[in-house]
Amino acid sequence: MFARRTAWDLTPTELAERVACRRAEGRLVVDGVDTNPGRCGILRPGEILREGLDRLARDPRALRYEPDPRGDLDVREALAGLYADTGRSLGADRSILTAGTSEAYAHLFRLLADPGDRIHLPSPGYGLFAHLAELEGLEVASYPLREPGPGRGARWRLDLDALAADLDERSRVIVTIDPHNPTGSFVDPADLASLASIAEERGLALITDEVFTDYATEGHARPGPSELGDAGPLRFVLSGASKVLGLPQIKVAWIGVEGPPALRNDALARLEFVADAFLSVSPLAASLMPFLLAHRDEIQTEIRARLSANRAALAGRVAAWEGVELLPAEAGWHAILRVRRPAPAAPDRPRSLDEEAFVLALLDRTGVLVHPGGLYDLEPRDRSGRPCEHLVLSLLIEPDRLSRVADGLEPLLAETSAGLDAPSLRASDEPSV
Q1: What is the pLDDT of residues 324-337, one digit of tens each?
Q2: Four-point Cα dihedral 395, 355, 375, 222, nearest 10
Q3: Which domains does the chain have, with CATH numbers?
C-alpha cells in the first residue's frame, strides 16, 4: 500500500526509548546535545524577535497576501547585503526563499535528479540529508572525509580520489557541508577547486550547506570566497535563519544559485516553478526577516561568546581526563570527544569501550545525554588508525549544564580508562541516579 521509499525501520533506538521513558517518569535528563538556542539560554534572538513581532503587528502590510514564488524581494535584497558584507556576491535575482533548509534540499533534489539517480554526501555526517534524498527516490552514496594528521590543524580533507572513483552515469549531485557538522571543518579551497573541476567535467551540480559558516572557532576563519563566479559547474548555496539568526522557529531559509549564466537562469526558472507549487514560506515570517537580519551581529555575538566559553571550559576539563581528547574544530556548535580504547588486561579477555553502551550507562547513572559517534558515522579509529570511540555534545548549552554533563562523564570515563570491561558499563545494570 505504501511507497517503497517510505519503508524505513521506524523502531526507536534504545537511547531514544530510554530518554522518552525518563522524561515520562519525570526523571532527570541533562540534555548535552541540545542545539536549540531558545532552550539553551541564548536570549538576544528572542528579544529581537519580540521587537520584530511588535512592529509587524502594527504594519498594515501584514494583512495582505501577495506571494512571490521566489520569496519576498525585501528579504532577498537584505540577504544580498548580508553576503556583500562578507565579500561575497548573492544578487537578489539569484536567490529563492524556502521554509527551512530541509525544504531547500528537497526542492534541489527534485530539480536535479530523477528517482533512481545518485547523490553523493560526505561521511561522517548528519543522517537527515540521506532521508531527504530517499524521500525523493534517490540513491545515496557517501564519500569520506579524512582527518588531518597530528600537528596538521583541524581541517578534514575531502577524499577526492574515492569520490571520483564512485561517480557513475547515475550521479547527479555532490553535497558539501561547509563548515561540516559535527567535525567543524571548513572545506579546503584546494579541495573545493578540485571538486568544482570534477563536477564541471562530469556535468554534476554542487550543493554547499553553509548554515554554520558564521560560527568560526577563535583563531580560525572561513576561507575566502570562491573565485569561480560565472564559471565552473552549477552551484547552490544553502543557509537559513535557524543558525544565522538563532531562530529555528522562523522557518525561513534560502538557496543561492551560482554558475554559468545559461545554466543558472534555467535553474532559477525551474526552482521558481517548484516554489510556486508550494508557496510554503510564511509571508509573516518573511516580513520579519529584514529587521532580524539587521540585528544579526548582536545575535551572533552572543552565540559565538557562548561557543567560545564552552569550548574553553570543556578543553580544561578534558585535559585532566586520561585517554580522552577534545578534537580541534574550525567552526560549528558541536564538540567531539575521542576516547582511546584501553589495552586488554589479557589476550583472552579483551576490553574496549562500546560507545552505545557507554551513553546508555551515562544516561541511567547520571541522567546525562550525549550522542555516540556512530550516530554521525564517525569511524571507530583515530587519525593513526588506532581503535577509539567518539562522543558528540553541544557547545550551545548553558555553561552550568555543560559542567553537569562533564561531571557525569568524568567518573565513567575514568572507569573506562582504568580498563573497565564494556559489559559492566551496559545500561541493563540500571544503576541508580
Answers
A1: 999 999 999 999 99
A2: 40
A3: 4-42+298-429 (3.90.1150.10), 67-294 (3.40.640.10)
